[in-house]
Request: fold
Amino acid sequence: MATMVRSMAVEGIDGFQVEIEATTLKGQQQMISIIGLGDQAVKESGERLQAAMEYYGYDIPRDKVLISLAPGNRKKRGSHYDLGITLAVLTETDQIAPKDIEEYVFIGELSLNGRIRSCPGILSMITAARQCGIKKAIVPYDNLQEAEKIEGIEIYGLQSLKQAVQLLEGNEKVEIERTENVEIKICDEELDFADVRGQRELLKAVLLSAAGGHNLLMIGEPGCGKSMIARRIPGILPEMSEEEALEVTKIQSIAGTLKNNEGLAKRRPFRAPHHNVSLNALIGGGTYAQPGEVSLAHGGILFLDELAEFSRSTLDALRQPLEDRTVTISRVNGTNSYPANFVFVAAMNPCPCGYYPSAKCKCTDYEIIHYRSKVSGPILERIDIQKWVHPVDYFELNNEAVDYTSEELKSKVEKARKIQEERYKNDEGIFCNAQMTVSQIQQYCKLDDECTSILRKSCEKYGFSARVIHKLLRLARTSADIRGAENIEKCDIIGVLSCRELDKSNSNMYTVGD
Reply:
């Protein structure tokens, strides 16, 4: 009769149970055969387990050992099955006598001397194990703090195969490693909006973006403060809920960007890929459809500096994630879906030299048109706020009063987000105004006759599409929330119309008319 132990696998950001069955086939050539659609790392597990068994003095079976990973119709990858496979072989060959082995799930890669190495995706696997009714889990010690964030399942962080055997056999002398609940201190980078001077109108747009989760594009001369402002936006975003932190940590764990002995993510992500980033690196891909920058930015900020320097095909691939807030990646080895609910912040120069429309600009009309055409219309339409950033006079900055500090802006953002949290408490998947559906816009963004008239005249003048109108209404709802007002008023409509300055620049307009 075959011995069965349990492990877990990861598919996308979710896990599923894998049953490891081990049996010996008498009279056949000595070898270890692993079946069940495993990748190369799984197939190499046989070599690692033989070295680990020999290191601790166990006998390597003289007959053929057959290992089956079920379900056999789902692909499995990674080296974290080593521990479960080795324990199944040792049990099947009567070299160990484990107690209640069926209550455990085993996760961990083995080194050649039997040490248990850390592995990615622990959070997803332990979450799935709890959903499967598993009561106990043995994980690498380096992943213990991450795994212990999931309640309802007993976690053992071990460092070696020997410790795992001692635990299963009920050896009271085994020393089970435990982490202390120590709060990890995060070193602030001291990026404060108090450092920003002379950009009051832009800071109002940043407040709108953060309060409602709206996408933001800044266009202006080099050195006018676009990147400086963008890097301060994460500091005014509200704290993540436990649900958001779990989802962000899952993605980081799967991508291998989560540091060892680090629990749930504390900060909202801020991802700023270089403009030579590949399509696969931005959207996700690779042999096993791994998450890309848009998923690693989930719950936080995706900042693209020098937007027009990115390839057009790469930028156009952002259309679906910006609209659906998820991304599906299909590869030969599988199809995975990852969340991609981020605030898109971008910055670009107005022309190749960067100084249009000042007298310093030497670009021709063709060069300017060609440069701006690298960012397609459909992408621009998906960006709620589009602001020109005007240069500031350095010698007058010291005389400028501080407009806002990050603490003041964050307080306003949190108040607005609490209003939205209450508004959408019965709407699954909706956390802020930027995520409102069309039916919700009709319900929460009602306008009086005066506001409707102002919006209609602006749309007729600048040719706003229905998508842009919906974005303006979402922005107006956020503006009202910042003021704590129940209804959208005239000042909200006029204020958000100033957030579409690039649309108006087509008519040589940079400010809102009457």
Summary: The chain has 22 helices and 18 strands. Residues 355 and 361 are 5 Å apart (CA to CA). The longest helix spans residues 406-423.
